[in-house]
Amino acid sequence: MTGDEADEFAASHHVAILSTLKDAIAESELRYRFCRIEINESSQDFVQGSSFYPAGEAQTERARAKRLRLAKDNYAIFLRTLSWREFEGCCRGILGILGVEEPTLTQASDDQGIDFYGKLALGNRLDNFSELPGLDRRLNVWLVGQAKHYDKTRVSTPDIRELVGSVRLAQSGIASDDGRALSGFNPSLLDPVFFLFFTTGTISRDGETLAARSGMICMDGDQIATFLADNEIGLTGDVFEQDAALAWVRSHLHQ
Asked: Residue limits of the Restriction endonuclease type IV Mrr domain (predicted)?
C-alpha cells in the first residue's frame, strides 16, 4: 500500500473507527471498567492513554484520579494472591468504604450462602440532609453479597441464581442452622436490599446479562482492582504497597 493509498484508507474509515472507539470507551465507563485509552480532548484525530493529563493540570483532582488508576494492575495481581477468606475480608472492607457503619463478615463455614452484609444509612447522603431528626434519618438500604475467590474460573448464571436464592431465604428467615450465621441480617418486609456479587475472576456474558436484568451489582477482579485504586487502599503517595494493602484486608477479618 502506497502512502497515498494509506491516507485514503484512513480518511474513509476515520468516522467508523472513531465511533467504535467512543462506543468502547462509553461501555467501559458504564460498566465501571478501566479503559486504557481515551480520545484527545483537543483533537479527535488523536488517541491517548486514559491516565494522560496535560502538565498544566497536574494539580487538579481529575489528574490525581488518573494517577491513582495507574496502580490498577498491581491491585489485580494482589487480589489473586489473597486466600479465599482474605478476599471475603476485602469485600467487607468495600462495604465500609461505601459507608456501611457495621459491615459484617459471616462465619467461614455454614454461612447460608451469604459472605458479607450491612445496613447503609442514607440520611447524610441525601440533598435534603438536616442536622435535626427528619425523614432522611429513616431511609436505609441493606447491602448483602457473596465473594468468590476465583483465578481462572468464570462466574456464570448458576452463581448469580444461587445468591438470589440465598438472600430470599434469609429474608424469609429460613436457614439450615439456628439462625446464628445471619443473626444481624434482619431486613423488614419492605426494606430495599442491594445484591452484590464480587469475584477475583471474570463473569461470563450470560452471567453479566442476568445480573444486569435482575438488578444485581457484580464486580469482577478488574473492577474491584479499579475500585481499590480509586479509594487509595494500600497507597503511599501514588505508590502501591502490597504489605499495607494486605494489612487493610486483614483488619477486616475481625468483627
From this structure: 79-169
